[in-house]
Design goal:
Helix content: 40-55%
Oligomer: single chain
Shape: flat
Radius of gyration: 25 Å
Number of helices: 3
């Protein structure tokens, strides 16, 4: 039948009683046991944020070890400078003309 929807895409009655509930799984039966792409991407993003947080915590600890007499404000300032320093990417990560982000994004 031309123009008809596949059987797996038709809305079914969900647990909440709404036919178009966003929690409804409309994937083909052979894909229902696989994790959804959004949960996989969300997990990868969560891991990336956790790694970034761990790297910052490690550098903070390293700075405290290297500068034991430094105040917490001084450590924060050194950490901020470390995060903003981009060795090898002073002009950005991509090819093209350099743009100062402060002039572009205020």
């Amino acid at each position: 039948m031309a123009g008809s929807k596949p059987a797996y895409a038709t809305p079914k009655q969900s647990r909440c009683g709404h036919a178009a509930c966003p929690q409804q799984d409309v994937r083909p039966p052979y894909n229902r046991d696989m994790p959804s792409p959004t949960s996989v991407a969300g997990g990868a993003l969560r891991v990336a944020f956790d790694l970034a947080e761990a790297g910052i915590a490690l550098m903070r600890q390293n700075l405290r070890r290297r500068f034991p007499e430094a105040s917490e404000d001084d450590i924060d300032q050194r950490l901020r400078a470390w995060v903003q320093h981009r060795p090898g990417a002073e002009q950005g990560d991509a090819a093209g003309r350099p743009v100062d982000p402060r002039s572009r994004f205020g």
